[in-house]
Amino acid sequence: MIRVFFTEDHAIVREGLKQILADTKDIVVAGEAADGDEAIARIKTGDYDIIVLDISMPGRSGLDILKELKEIKPALPVLILSMYPEDVYAIRSFRGGASGYLSKESAPTELITAIRKVSSGGKYISAALAEKLVVNLGDDSGKPLHEKLSEREYQILCMIASGKTGKQIAAELNLSAKTVSTYRTRILEKMDLKNNSELTHYAIQSGLTE
What we know:
Layout: E1 2-7, H1 11-21, E2 27-33, H2 36-45, E3 50-54, H3 62-72, E4 78-82, H4 86-95, E5 100-103, H5 108-119, H6 127-137, H7 151-161, H8 166-173, H9 177-191, H10 196-205
Parallel strand pairs: 1-2, 1-3, 3-4, 4-5
Helix pairs in contact: 2-3, 4-6, 7-9, 7-10, 8-9
């Protein structure tokens, strides 16, 4: 029996994920958490075969949680779920130690396939991303500007580009408005951009927004 632990801040989404797995004979949801800190605490003492981790949560990002998980239980496989652009976050996820990456828009059967493959020691990635990963994981030269950003900076870049205000970003990520402003300033400096308009233009041109 594959024991799955879900980390997802939306209760409705967690229930939906559990419903997808309800009819499988070899997979059981053995634990769940609504944020990263809760997940870390439970995973430290629990016995699970795979962690399914939402990449976007309030407070610490999923990639920050992934890093800590790989430090405390390096052999425990992690499958990343994301609603953000696949190409960039998939690369960052695998570099951080994830064993699989799946878009939330994927078919329910794909989640089951991914869990089975990752829990058995394999890697899971969609065919559409396979070639991009092969090219990017081993090549550090000629990287785009957004590759200079930390995981949190990249997350905020995408949120600004999607039209969210500083206050909205602060509320969603459980940060202060001042902290979000500091991140914004750092993003602009690292990418040599002047304002939100240039940032948004860059994100659109680079395919970082829907």
